[in-house]
Design a protein that fits this description.
Strand content: 15-25%
Number of strands: 11
Order of helices and strands: EEHEHEHEEHEHEHEEE
Number of helices: 6
Strand order of the largest sheet: 2-1-10-11-9-3-8-4-5-6-7
Distance between the termini: 35 Å
Radius of gyration: 18 Å
């Protein structure tokens, strides 16, 4: 645990400080997920709604408070699900559990890339094992050449290159990867919401203004509004010393 790791304050449902803890016992209890299939999405946005900073990456708008929770969410997950474009833009590499939090789960943390084309960001191949690749009929062959056929989840939706995300969740569960952490990007989150696959949405609000340009954490064509009008229930609200807000929303 770094010396500059900030304390967090819990505001809802009860008030209290959560000091830095090498094992993160309190945060792990707050964010623990139920047994069985469960999809949690985790995103960050500025106060004016931007999903990334001036460099085009979300890392430029997060801080140590967000990093504390981010590490716990990964430690509690079976698999991190991310779109290929986001994995490429954010510089994802091979996946492993956050150092020091390995006790929260016994199995290795898997990475699953969603790609219609089957193209896999090369940086994600640099790790203890290649990522799983979620793709449709058109992308299966190229994905198999990159990661091996046994690491490809072919989930066609009936179109030439579409991906059936509900079938993907079922395929992950069949592999023992029931606790899914979706890290976006905005397009994948939109598709997950449209398919009614998100059980919980964790949103960090960064105390920054990005101005016009960056997109929001949910991006979809104008004729489709995934999740619009859906009511959420606030599970808890935390804050960091710089004003960062970390909300856990239960999707009804």
């Amino acid at each position: 645990m770094s010396s500059d790791t900030p304390p967090l304050v819990r505001h809802l449902p009860t008030v209290g400080e959560i000091p830095p803890d090498a094992d993160e016992h309190v945060l792990a209890d707050l964010y623990r997920v139920p047994d069985g299939p469960f999809v949690r999405a985790n995103m960050i946005a500025t106060v004016d709604g931007a999903a990334w900073g001036p460099d085009g990456r979300s890392a430029s708008i997060n801080d140590p408070a967000d990093w504390r929770v981010f590490r716990v969410l990964r430690a509690l997950a079976d698999v991190v699900l991310v779109g290929a474009g986001t994995a490429r833009q954010e510089g994802y590499t091979g996946m492993s559990r956050p150092r020091g939090l390995e006790r929260l789960a016994t199995a290795p943390l898997e990475l699953a890339i969603v790609t219609r084309s089957g193209q896999v960001p090369w940086a994600t191949l640099d790790g203890p094992r290649p990522p799983l690749v979620v793709t449709g009929r058109a992308g299966a062959q190229e994905a198999g050449a990159a990661v091996g056929e046994d690491r490809v989840l072919e989930c066609p939706d009936g179109t030439e290159d579409g991906v059936d995300l509900r079938a993907a969740r079922e395929a992950l569960t069949a592999r023992g990867l029931a606790r899914v952490l979706c890290e976006g990007g905005p397009g994948l989150l939109a598709d997950m919401l449209a398919a009614d696959l998100v059980d919980e949405l964790c949103v960090t609000t960064s105390p920054m203004l990005a101005g016009p340009g960056p997109g929001r954490i949910v991006a979809a064509p104008r004729d489709r509004e995934p999740g619009a009008g859906r009511e959420l229930r606030l599970g808890h609200l935390l804050s960091g010393p710089s004003g960062t807000l970390l909300a856990r929303w239960e999707v009804g």
